[in-house]
Amino acid sequence: MIGDWDCTQLSSTNAATAVTQKISTGYGVHQLKSFSINYGNCGLFGFYVVMDGSDVASTTFGMKEVIRGVSEEEIERGKNMYKTVAFSALESSVTRVDDIAKQVLYSDTVQSLSDLENAIENVDKKAISEAINKHVYDRDLAVAGIGRTEAWPDYYQLRIGMSAWRL
């Protein structure tokens, strides 16, 4: 749903995802990459952003707002994009063996391709909402900056921004 984007792609309001449409038309972002590293009982999810640094606070809070409002259409598009990327990467025997080794290293199990496809198909808006509520909201952040770090908002502001005021 988020994917990768950089300014050389020349996409704006006609980009494939809503996130790309928003960041390509504002916020001073030059490149966006999302990452997810998962182990058996923990993981790391985040974004790598290259920007001009003039308004870091509005960019970080703007990305949060864009990601919060995900539609069913964007979820379906994201699932299709992920299946394309995942299965294309596993076309050769070398990359498949590499994937199996990583799965064993990270989780002590090996997932079949049909299980992977079923897991992707089982993702829906409710599952995404539950995952965000469980693993993102009200959790501590790890942030790093190079360059104009004086424009970076205080950690306290970022942390409060990730609070989900649930009753």
From TrEMBL:
- Give any GO molecular function from the UniProt entry: metal ion binding
Natural source organism: Brugia timori
Q: A cellular component term (GO) from this record?
A: mitochondrion
Task: Report the protein name in the record.
Answer: Peptidase_M16_C domain-containing protein
Q: Could you say which residues form the signal peptide?
A: none
Q: Which SUPFAM superfamilies match?
A: LuxS/MPP-like metallohydrolase
- PANTHER family given in the database record: CYTOCHROME B-C1 COMPLEX SUBUNIT 1, MITOCHONDRIAL, METALLOPROTEASE
Q: Which domain of life is it from?
A: Eukaryota
Q: Which InterPro entries does this entry report, sorted A to Z?
A: Metalloenz_LuxS/M16 (IPR011249), MPP/UQCRC_Complex (IPR050361)
